[in-house]
Design goal:
The structure holds two protein chains of two kinds. By secondary structure, chain A is an alpha/beta fold. Helix content of chain A is about 45%, strand content about 20%. In chain A, the strands form four sheets. In chain A, strands 3-4-14-9-10-13 form a six-stranded mixed sheet, with helices on both faces. In chain A, strands 7-6-5-8 form a four-stranded parallel sheet, with helices on both faces. The mean pLDDT of chain A is about 95. Chain B has one domain: TIM Barrel (Alpha-Beta Barrel). Chain B has a nine-stranded parallel sheet with strand order 5-4-3-2-1-9-8-7-6. Classes of the chains: A alpha/beta, B alpha/beta.
Chain lengths: ~400, ~260
Amino acid sequence: MKVPDNRGYFGKFGGKFVPETLFSCLEQLEATYKKVKKDKKFREELAYYLKEYAGRPTSLYFANNLSKLLGIRVYLKREDLLHTGAHKINNALGQILLAKFMGKKRIIAETGAGQHGVAVATVASLFGCSCDVYMGQEDIRRQRMNVFRMKILGAQVIPVKSGSRTLKDACSEAIRDWVTNVRDTYYLIGSTVGPHPYPLIVRDFQTVIGKEARRQILKKEGKLPDYLVACVGGGSNSLGLFYPFFNDKRVKFIGVEAAGFGLEDFNAASLIKGKIGVLHGAKSYVLQDDFGQIKNAHSVAPGLDYPGVGPEHAFYKSISRAQYVAVKDKASIEGFKLLSEVEGIIPALEASHAIYYLKRLAAKAKGATVLVCLSGRGDKDLEIVQEYINKNKD
Amino acid sequence: MRIRDKFEQLKKKNKKAFIGYVPFGFPKIKYTKDIILTLAAGLDLIEVGIPFSDPLADGPLIQRATSLALDEGATVKETFKCLGQVKGKIKIPLVVMTYYNPVLRFGMEKFLQSMKESGVGGLMIVDLPLEESKEYIKAARRFDIDTVFFITPTTSLERAKKIAAISRGFIYYISITGITGPKDFSCAPPASHIRRLRKITKLPICVGFGIHTSKQVRQVGSFSDGVIVGSRIVKFIEENWRDKNFLGRLKAYIESLKA
């Protein structure tokens, strides 16, 4: 099954729910993307930057200590080793080349954890574009170092003070900027969300993760893994890993959402607790009240703190291709510590959700081979974790 | 009164429609009814906004108003309750303006049914473009609710044709590429775009976004069939609702914009 269809639908999810002003721009983006996707020069240029600049391919590391501890075979896809510290750079490089192709010199982006913002600021600096990054005030507070990184890279970080002051509001504000400056501005969206063709474009640029991982695991194990595990916020690292395995029916996909304070409390588990709705241009699962007002999400991991999720995940859920589970703040901190202590790898808090989930998976799937996307490194989260530990000492 | 009849009536008098926007529940739910009744005395058509938590196409003023209204408990249900109370008390058409998610959650059929029952003539859904509107149009025709769509400076003529074909009542022309409440805009580009649109549609074309003064109302009226004032009315309400003679002043303010 080829998803999305021409109208940007993954089953009944996706679409283009945008104000009229943006429509022509989405059409132009779609047409350009179709063209460059097949363009040899474009693909070579992207491959060049992914390899020489970002540091691909990333290794697939067999986590021996963790495997012994849990009784499963754990492979980590080391996106944390990339330049700028997370998988976000894969998509940022792809889209900046697209923007260049379209002749747009001003780049805007939204960011939650700041990882996407840093990736965009990085590629904007590399390609000589001006760059404005929208970031919620609350995230600016939580991720000060990333804010500083973006500034050093020459980007302007615009604080967003509306709503929950996190990723959702940064995304809304970026879209408002885009509506206003649509003629000369490229909106470099950071996840598999938003109106078509963004969920497709971002997924495609992230599939490099899964393509590499598939080759690597076959080489190392001589077979495909039993499980793929990745955290899901908007969904880009998980879809990047899952998609190339879509037709490998025996490989089970597990998406780990953020349960925040708990599934009956503030959380960011849109697939598990959300209802079908439209947010930021796409139909998908959305955390909302009975009257369709979007709820504020919560996760200790700023990159997961979003009340929506990519439409392709909603589709995977509807056809049961993937299973979605949720891990609380507290458990994710445990995952963060666990990987640091046993493997000497400090994972990003987002990926720590996936790491923690391995403990639960190990209990029911002894001996299984599990491939986990370690989507980013945790340097950016040290302050949050320190604060969390101090607050929850007892 | 039907939207179509209103424009007929204005045309006979050689007048342009003067349209105002007010978000439901702002500054308080109990005020909306009186605000609508007051505005109805001076306007030809009222757009009532149903607040949405994430209004992508709105500037800071309407964002603020929306957020206040939501804090006050403004919901789709409350809106229709209020509009039902207004029904029969005003002689001008009402249209509802909102975003898609509140409609989707409430249920399209139920939403249109509620509109019908509370005497609302038309609907605009900001983030439901032509391509996603098939079901909506089918349902709206069944309930005989006018589907008002947007045309913007970035809409090609070919696309505008398709939009005009599914539009009923009037066409909302957005003066600039941007969100509600821009400081200013120049009249020449929309004037020339609208001249071209005349060749593809007979529907009235009304212009909104960035209209703050009586001078602009006159200017925009000279090349369109109607002028829509949104953020400026919201601003007036925000600044004056605590005033003892608020409704009287609101009435006078609307008159001053028409002068």
